[in-house]
Amino acid sequence: MQLHSAVALICATVSLFVIAGAEDPYRFFNWNVTYGDIFPLGVHQTGILINGQFPGPDIHSVTNDNLIINVFNSLNEPFLLSWNGVQNRRNSYEDGVYGTTCPIPPGKNFTYILQVKDQIGSFYYFPSLGFHKAAGGFGGIRILSRPRIPVPFPDPAGDYTVLIGDWYKANHTDLRAQLDSGRKLPFPDGILINGRGPGGASFNVEQGKTYRLRISNVGLQNSLNFRIQNHKLKLVEVEGTHTLQTTYSSIDLHLGQSMSVLFTADQPAQDYYIVVSSRFTNPVLTSTATLRYSNSAGPVSGPPPGGPTIQVDWSLNQARSIRTNLTASGPRPNPQGSYHYGLINTTRTIRLANSAGQVNGKQRYAVNSVSFVPADTPLKLADFFKIDGVYRIGSISDNPTGGGIYLDTSVMNSDYRSFIEIVFQNDEDIVQSWHLDGYSFFVVGMDGGQWTAASRNGYNLRDAVSRCTTQVYPKSWTAIYVALDNVGMWNLRSEYWARQYLGQQFYLRVFTTSTSLRDEYPIPKNALLCGRASGRRTRPL
């Protein structure tokens, strides 16, 4: 009864304040988040289920749809969901990370009001607090083009979500306790494909037909390689951008990344291995699923096909080959190449270096020497209610300091509508992966060694892929251009989840003095209030 009452209340709220035009459809979701028994690697674990499902249900939507997602928290600890790649235009209050959104208390609910404004593509959602991601609670998001917007390939015969990620046999509470005590996590125990261990998942196809796979690396620590025995993969979309349709025998997905591939079931009718293996690791983790032809004459045969293991150059060259299809329509009829990012002068360069070290005898991770610690109040609420002392603007510098790691609630200020360059410098031996909420950015360059101003001579200023998550190889750099056209408080984080949990993140505050709804929506009427914002009022219903 409590759940239905909450839904009725939010429906009334939505009808009173519609954040999009009446022509944009609404899709309603009721989700109950619970603990449940799971056995993905053959041992009992406590997983996080959504409506009893592990992984959670897919979200199917169309460009500009309004998504009304009522989340009831039946766990015994606070909970939030975030939407990896959904930009939440003008509305960072709904982003679902602790810097923007108060956690949903145990036994309570919160209704997210999202709009997938001017977006297409393949993304995913995940739980953002308390290392919950190591227990599940994630699922796929697909945003289809509107019916009259051309897509640069024929409709596939089937469209599958494929969630891949490394996994621990330990419960998330045990992993979290290790991190809280200042220790590093061990190497993961295996790889899951759609929540199942080796040989557990299967995909059915008919001979001669073409299928789309929307693949996301929802794991915790490792880059992964994806391949299908005897089948080629044609890349067609990366995190909302139609790409040049390059064919690969296998493809790397780094932490937090999503992409779509097409493949044709053009081999003799039998079962084939789908293989996912870890990259740049020793030992190499491997897991398999089954591609099953409807007229299959027999089971999989032979060993699973091998893939690249520790070769960085192979992965770097593949990453550079992923480019934007300049003639394809995006979420609007104009071609993706109509935005000439390479002709715009950048107004600021931000250089970000990741590091690892000890603070007070405990393991921490940092960006430009600052290891993020959450404040007692979401930063976005502190901004709205003008609560002093929650964070300091400029608490993280634009450039690496070279100093020791220290703790702070790091927030970097930036100007609305500026066009900036961000350089990620990775001087460590791991593959780093960075994600920026609220945005897509152009990945204009990546190479080994130290970035210098001369590195700009090698930038791709014509058809760089636009995405929201990018890798940085060991002892290497990656450069991006981003147009700061989305007001809000946006999380920039490592997708290496233990690093994110222990401080390798900060918030980019994209600010304007304007109070116009054209620039930013007001705080949601149903916003949860916590910390120093408790007891205040959002807006009258």
UniProtKB/TrEMBL annotation:
Annotated signal peptide? 1-22
Per its UniProt record, what InterPro entries does this chain match? Answer: Cu-oxidase-like_N (IPR011707), Cu-oxidase_2nd (IPR001117), Cu-oxidase_C (IPR011706), Cu-oxidase_fam (IPR045087), Cupredoxin (IPR008972), CuRO_1_AAO-like (IPR034273), CuRO_3_AO-like (IPR034275)
The organism's superkingdom is given as Eukaryota
Pfam families with a match to the protein in the record: Cu-oxidase, Cu-oxidase_2, Cu-oxidase_3
Domain Plastocyanin-like, which positions? 33-146, 159-296, 377-513
- Record-annotated membrane-spanning stretches: none
Family, according to the entry, reads as follows: Belongs to the multicopper oxidase family.
Return the PANTHER family for the record: MULTI-COPPER OXIDASE, OS04G0561900 PROTEIN
Identify this protein by name: L-ascorbate oxidase homolog
Q: What is the lineage of its organism?
A: Eukaryota, Viridiplantae, Streptophyta, Embryophyta, Tracheophyta
Gene name on record? LOC107937572
